[in-house]
TrEMBL record:
Keywords from the named record: Repeat
Protein name according to UniProt: Teneurin-like YD-shell domain-containing protein
Domain of life where this protein originates: Bacteria
PANTHER family: PROTEIN RHSA-RELATED, PTHR32305
């Protein structure tokens, strides 16, 4: 691993970070104004500088950011330090207003719709959120127990109802809803505060359970009292085996070097910055199934990629990026594509050898046209119709919670979905006939597919990566999922080394070629759930359309996702970034999901109350009394997004300081200078601290005690996983 050099000024503030040397040097510098505020951040791409300039008001709040392409992001603040406007580059302002005690009561995007655009929020006398009114006039209502203050019911004006029941200790033991017709309910069991089983009933039925070892770690996972996989660890608490998958790690860095499932072994190599630079899947030590090699620039972005499937002809890709870091030019052997964007990242054109396709957008960044495709949005911003011509129309239906309920295809076939109370899709229907169901091991990852009787038809096992399985068991056979560096499923191989499916994607996830011998993986681009009938990819909270490289709806956490464009996928860089949550992007799938070698289901138990109902409702479920605060948190999302783009890439960037914003927030976009900043070494990684009114250990400094170091990093006195996030 290349050494990191950090320089400080006379006041002990970071002014330069370097990693590597010579032609491989990665360098970022910070300059400050006379008041000590950062007014310039420069990331060097070789001899070329990417410069971000910041202007502040009299108390140090950023009011504008000049981006490397000379476009400007504006932020407005009121006298109380609350964010009241965000002006994306080239667009009109999004505005927020607050009630007299500082609670967000309205979000208003730029005018682009003949009707109401605002989302409004109402609270009770105890400052708890009780109603959200959407632009389409649909409402979400929250009722609380008079005696306990806990949420009694969440309902929508269209008829969805979610009802929690609690045990004597205040833990949620049952969640019913949201739709009575499907009869979906969830039952939970615990060992103390640790979730040990989750059971579904209704059209989709089944139970997922976890066993614990003497150290409190997950030791096994079972489905329907069978289909059990065991989990093993090394002396550093890093996972070494999950079921049939075994992991070998570097003795010095802990990074995964090989992953073996049966006779198929994957090897991984890394560059001096800790980034993956190559991988190969081999059957029986001889037959090469899939290889890829990567070259990166000074910002850690992939510029060249060579891949080979089943020992065939290598395919060479190259990538170029514009001044804002967006993908601008791609070649695949002799073929090419170039992309242009407006100031706020909307993709204006795609040019290939076959010609140029143009797109148009409205003031809220909603797509109107893409080539011959026309799009219609609902008042809340979701795409409700997509038409190629009058005979090729697709219609989409949503509920007030943001769930896609149904898609009507051009031939009038209707694909519909049911969800559990945590917002996870649990059933798919074709013309109202049950097609398949899913059981989940956490908020993001399905662990099994089941039929209408609850029989497991596919069992997924996650080991080396937290957003895509390593293998699947179906029909009594084990199939290895062959994935690229993003987690995109590129091939499926049976236990005898035979390819049963191959897939190739364009840079935005569009399927270039697909072949199968009867088996089709449910996982696709970047590890998302692929629906081949509706041609959308499901990533956590949202659905993604590879055709247009955009989300089907706005980011539900708005600007807290780190982008000024609420529809743009991973801020325009689908080559280097992923967004498995559908909320905010991560820069490196291997780095993020294996920083401690723990797959998501190992740590998902810590999130005992993440019920997928939006941040405001989740806060009430965990009894945090700051319900909605879109002030400094909005600004953090935007500025952290900028900082991440500008910083040196690689998993070992451990420089920086915590910046105080108001009385509630501290951010460390580059991590802390030392792992000794706190008892938790995760302080080395980018994180923030967000303070609620209920502080552990009586900590009083801004953001005291509640830091987003990593999802599985819990202080012993935190009540739950969400205490670390909100």
């Amino acid at each position: 691993m290349s050494a990191i050099s950090i320089d400080y000024d006379m006041q002990g503030r970071v002014i330069e970070v370097e990693q590597g040397a010579g032609a491989d040097l990665r360098r970022t510098t910070l300059d400050r104004d006379t008041d000590g505020f950062v007014d310039e951040l420069v990331a060097y791409l070789g001899m070329v500088a990417r410069t971000y300039e910041f202007s502040h008001d009299g108390v140090g709040r950023i009011v504008s950011a000049l981006l490397p392409d000379a476009s400007t992001l504006g932020l407005g603040w009121d006298e109380e330090g609350r964010l009241v406007s965000v002006t994306p580059p080239g667009q009109s302002a999004h505005t927020m207003s607050y009630d007299p005690v500082g609670r967000l009561d309205e979000y208003d995007p730029p005018d682009a719709f003949m009707g109401t655009d605002e989302t409004t929020y109402e609270y009770d006398d105890d400052h708890r959120l009780v109603q959200v009114t959407r632009p389409d006039t649909e409402t979400i209502d929250i009722e609380y127990s008079v005696s306990t203050g806990r949420v009694d019911e969440v309902s929508t004006s269209e008829g969805a109802v979610i009802t929690p029941t609690y045990d004597a200790s205040g833990r949620i033991e049952n969640l019913a809803g949201p739709y009575a017709a499907a009869g979906t309910e969830l039952d939970f069991t615990y060992n103390g505060s640790v979730l040990t089983s989750e059971e579904w009933s209704g059209d989709t039925a089944g139970v997922v359970a976890w066993g614990l070892d003497s150290a409190g770690r997950i030791s096994s996972q079972s489905i329907n009292a069978g289909s059990t996989v065991s989990v093993s660890y090394d002396d550093d608490d890093l996972v070494t085996a999950v079921g049939a998958a075994t992991l070998a790690r570097s003795a010095t860095t802990g990074q995964i070097e090989t992953v073996s499932v049966g006779d198929i072994e994957q090897t991984l190599t890394y560059d001096g910055f800790g980034d993956v630079d190559g991988s190969e899947y081999i059957y029986d030590g001889i037959d090469s199934l899939f290889t890829y090699e990567l070259e990166r620039d000074h910002l850690g972005r992939i510029t060249e990629q060579t891949e080979t499937v089943d020992g065939g002809t290598p395919v060479a890709w190259t990538y170029q990026y514009d001044d804002r870091g967006r993908l601008s030019y791609v070649t695949r052997d002799a073929a090419y594509a170039s992309y242009t964007y407006d100031d706020n990242g909307n993709r204006l054109s795609v040019t290939t050898a076959g010609g140029t396709t143009y797109a148009t957008y409205d003031e809220q960044d909603r797509i109107e046209e893409y080539g011959n495709w026309d799009f219609v949005h609902g008042p809340a911003g979701e795409i409700i119709e997509k038409a190629y011509n009058v005979s090729d129309v697709r219609q989409y239906e949503y509920d007030a919670l943001g769930n896609l309920l149904a898609v009507t295809l051009p031939d009038s076939t209707k694909i519909s979905y049911d969800y559990d109370a945590r917002g996870r899709v649990v059933a798919r229907y074709i013309d109202n006939v049950f097609d398949k169901g899913w059981l989940w091991q956490d908020q993001l990852n399905p662990v099994a597919e089941v039929d209408d009787t609850g029989v497991i038809t596919a069992r997924y096992v996650y080991a080396s990566r937290g957003h895509v399985p390593d293998y699947v068991i179906t029909g009594g056979e084990t199939y290895r999922l062959i994935t690229d560096y993003r987690g995109s499923v590129r091939a499926v191989v049976d236990d005898e080394g035979n390819l049963v499916q191959t897939i190739e994607y364009g840079p935005w996830g569009e399927v270039i070629t697909e072949w199968n011998s009867g088996y089709e993986s449910s996982f696709g681009f970047a590890g998302g759930l692929w629906d081949p009938d509706v041609k959308l990819v499901r990533f956590g909270a949202r659905l993604y359309d590879p055709l247009i490289g955009r989300w089907m709806m706005k980011d539900p956490i708005l600007f807290d996702g780190g982008q000024a464009n609420l529809y743009f996928y991973v801020d325009g860089d689908p080559v280097n970034r992923i967004d498995p949550e559908g909320l905010s992007w991560y820069g490196d799938a291997w780095t993020w999901f294996d920083q401690s070698g723990v797959p998501d289901f190992i740590v998902g138990w810590g999130d005992t109350v993440s019920f997928g109902l939006g941040a405001a409702i989740r806060k009430n479920f965990t009894n945090l009394d700051d319900v909605v605060n879109y002030d400094a948190n909005y600004a953090y999302g935007l500025l952290a997004g900028l900082a991440t783009q500008a910083c040196i890439a690689g998993p070992s960037v451990a420089a920086g300081e915590e910046l105080v914003i108001g009385v509630r927030l501290r951010i460390a976009p580059w991590g802390n200078r030392s792992s000794n900043w706190a008892p938790h070494p995760t302080g080395r990684y980018p994180h923030y601290h967000w303070r609620s009114k209920r502080l552990p250990n009586g900590q009083g400094k801004p953001g005291g005690g509640l830091g987003r170091h990593r999802p599985w990093d819990l202080h012993p006195d935190d009540v739950s996983f969400w205490d670390r996030f909100f």
